[in-house]
Amino acid sequence: MKKNTLFTVLLLCISHVGISQIDTKATKETKALYRNLGKIASTNILFGHQHATEYGHGWSGESDRSDVKSVTGSHPAIIGVDISGLSGRPADEILKNSEVLRKNVVDTYNRGGVTTVAWHFSNPASGGGFYWKDSVSARAIELIKPGGSHHEKYKEILRTIADFAKSAKGKDGSNVPMLFRPYHEFDGDWFWWGKSHCSREDFISVWQFTVTYLRDTLGVHNFIYVFSPDCKFNSEQEFLERYPGDKFVDMVGMDNYADFGRDGKYNLEAGIKKLKIVSDYAKKANKVAAFTETGLESIPDKNWWTESLLKSLKAEKINLAYVLVWRNDTRSSTHYYAPFPGQVSVPDFKVFYDDPYTLFEKDLVNIYH
């Protein structure tokens, strides 16, 4: 086990990091996770993979399996899930989805790993799914805000999410802490909550209501709230253009594929600059920063892990709690973002794994204490 001894010392000996959590009633495990993420960011970074244990390249639904584990012997430290199946569907389907998702989240907690929750939220006021479709999609942000025509429906959806959050309990009986990342990539136009489909004021209103309703009315105290635009900013001012305020955000992040090789285009200098903006704001606001999504589809660059990703993460004085790459599709031969046995980048990924800077699930000790 490559770094456990070092990391145990890290968790036990580093002094308290002065970061501010927005839920004063957060469970002790959630508070401990948040503090420890802040500590980790000062010296290391957790590696994450979306849907890592639910399915992978050519397989689905196998117990204790992930493509990352097949390559390295360890699951990712951060496992990404999605609560898209908890709304916009028949009640029996929502119940089934909730049960499957709960098992995944609880299993990750019991192993000592961390769950981050994305939300590809189907439009609650029209068809079109979570993407924006001209002539189909409604400008739903203004409809679900307080006073909007679909506000009560939105509250019902949030109650379903709250029920799920409070039902996820580990073998120790505790509610499982989760990094909740709603309305991601809002500065783009591809989702119905995107920048051109709602005003700044309405977006902020919905975000603030979402946090206060889940936390204060529904009593969800195991969420850590994560703010993550896409990479369409070049300054702190642009990064914060739709920021709901420090009282409504625990972690700040960024999704960025464009600067890290998408369509063969690399601009690592720009990517590093944006990561530094995120990291610098987190330090200033006493928050935690993360690289919430990235990756290179099909990973054709066999040295991408060390030459592009790792070098960028180590550049400047950037403090990030985790980096997450996107999913490995079950059926597609090209849609994958983490290596699997035989994939061309496996040797380089093993170097990435062995680097003392990166932490995987096997390296985590007492992250909830």
Automatic annotation (TrEMBL):
Gene Ontology molecular functions: mannan endo-1,4-beta-mannosidase activity
Family: Belongs to the glycosyl hydrolase 26 family.
Pfam families: Glyco_hydro_26 (PF02156)
Keyword field contains Secreted: yes
GO cellular component, one term: extracellular region
Any single GO BP term: substituted mannan metabolic process
Enzymatic reactions: Random hydrolysis of (1->4)-beta-D-mannosidic linkages in mannans, galactomannans and glucomannans
InterPro entries from the UniProt entry: GH, GH26_dom, Glyco_hydro_26, MANB/E
EC number: 3.2.1.78
Residue ranges occupied by any GH26 domain in the UniProt entry: 28-362
Annotated binding of substrate, by residue: H120, W190, Y257
Active-site residue numbers: E185, E293
Site entry (Plays an important role in maintaining the position of the catalytic nucleophile), positions: H184
Localization, UniProt: Secreted
Keywords: Carbohydrate metabolism, Glycosidase, Hydrolase, Secreted
UniProt organism field: Dyadobacter koreensis
Record SUPFAM superfamilies: (Trans)glycosidases
Stated name of the protein: Mannan endo-1,4-beta-mannosidase
Main localisation: secreted
